[in-house]
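Below is how a single chain appears once it has passed through the pipeline. First comes the sequence as given, then the structure the pipeline wrote out for it. We keep one example in the README because the format questions we get most often are answered faster by looking than by reading.
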Amino acid sequence: MRVLGIDCGGTYTGYGVVEQTPDGVLICIASGAVRLKTRDPLHQRLLRVHEELRAVIEQHHPDVAAIEEVFYASNVKSALKLGEVRGVAMMTAAGCGLPVVGYAPLSVKSAVVGYGRAEKTQVQDMVTRLLKLPAPPEPADAADALAIAICHLHTAATLAAMERL
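Resulting structure:
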């Protein structure tokens, strides 16, 4: 299974494509971030997220998109902007024919670090170890996106094992 993880943000929207081999090895296919210029009009930033995520999907052919659910924003305006970016990311994945699943931040951190209140640096460190990367993914939003993809792979494996029982 190949998963596109997406971590939405107002300045950076991280993405990470992770594949799990039949013997359970996790492989990082791609990672990065869409950098959004805050001085650009919102509609241009949203279009950039759409275009860049569509290009990632077309290049790497994931089977599913996993996206972090919104759980906190510093104010209403930030929450609305984050929701707009998240909506564009979901629409882009769905428009490319991908199923889209959401995960709470606590679930992502628990799946990757083992502790739902882990710090960003702990997530980066564990993503680096799990994917056997030479260095932590940069920016941190890319590491978060890889963590979301890993969370989905772990969740899917657990659900498949439960179905076999």
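The longest helix spans residues 140-164.

See the next section for the split statistics.
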